[in-house]
Amino acid sequence: MSSTCSTCAPTEHKRISRRAILKGAGAVGTVAVATPGFGTLAFASNNATRVGDVVVNIFLRGGMDGLSVVGPRNEVTGANFLAAARPTLAVDPASLLPLSADFGLHPAMAPLMSVWGDGVTNNRLALIPAAGFPSGDRSHFSVQRKMDEGLDNGAVGSGWLARHLDNTVSPGPDGLRAISLPNGQRSLSGSGVAVTLRSTDSFRVDGFRNNGDSGAMVRAALQDLHAVDADRVVNTRAQEALNALDIVNNTTLSTPANGAMYPSGGRGRNLGRVLAEVAALVRADSGLEAVATDANLGWDLHNNFGNQVDGRQAQNLGALAEVLAAFAQDLGPDMDRVTVVLMTEFGRTFRENGGAGVDHGRASTMFVMGGGIRGGVYGDWPGLAPENIDRNALRVTVDYRSVLADVLQHRLATGNMGAVLPGYADTPDKRLNLALPIGSSA
Description:
It contains eleven helices and twelve strands. By secondary structure, the chain is of the alpha/beta class. A hairpin with a 4-residue loop joins strand 3 and strand 4 (103-105).
């Protein structure tokens, strides 16, 4: 396979079309400085010369139900089948926020409609409702690990974001290229340019209680300690760590801009804090290129799923939408150089269980958000008729790696697609073409 899919030019997007749906319906009949195991420290900024976006990867750990995120609005797309399969859990099609004639967004996610815009000319949100892990594994741990590593099967010991950074040229050590927060994320595992932070205001040399009055003394001591032989690798890493401390501690991080308000409490509080810090680092031109975090809001709802108004799932979706909308508003025009990718290991079962919940399923909804994204609903909708259901789950028709490939090539200027997504056959028919090439316009 070539390093990039040279024939995958985004000349034709693959939004879910009414024609395709009708055709399908006819066919079926109706803080430490670094975290051990997550790479060594190195920092480099390429703000002046880079051409790629800042990528923010948010993993929705726990298996988010996609059928309640983007739902069918009519019988053509299977609203009747879903209502029968989930008599107490299904979202009323009439309450869905219209995305198209056939699909709608959960009403609790209304804040995201500000990113959706009019759905056409200023839409910066792509939704892929039948995306997921291509194999049938339904283990949280197993699938999360493989998706973090950008694989189908096997293991390589490094994350897809780590390999992107390692295969993308960036000049000298004067910035903060990649961060995991508030804990280590496997998508950056193995990277030589990633650091794990609990938060920007607690970033310090591990083992010291504060970096206040003693901060300068600690830094001077470390400089003396590692200045014996500047050519030694350990001393180079120490100097890079000191550079990182300087960048974070000496950068004035602004408060949210453009009237953005992140949730101060509730389920979205932690993710909101993380993304507020990310937005501040982007605005500060800290050299940031990649961020990995997660939003484990409690998606593993075998029970207590609740109704569309005040149930646990509705609360989770409302919190997620509120944070994402605040992030986009906070960045304002800087959102043009940021791409956010949200993924989850799998969706939930098609039919509700006896505990008023849903179990481990297959396909779910991926989100891609950014100024360089062609908004819309993408992919091939498999339908919800009985013959189209995959062992009580929505069938996966979009390999999650095809979404990553679009973003990697067209928004991140990845140097070697084969190295970043090993074992993935990157062919034109798999691409959704939801990302604009850098420098182009919709």
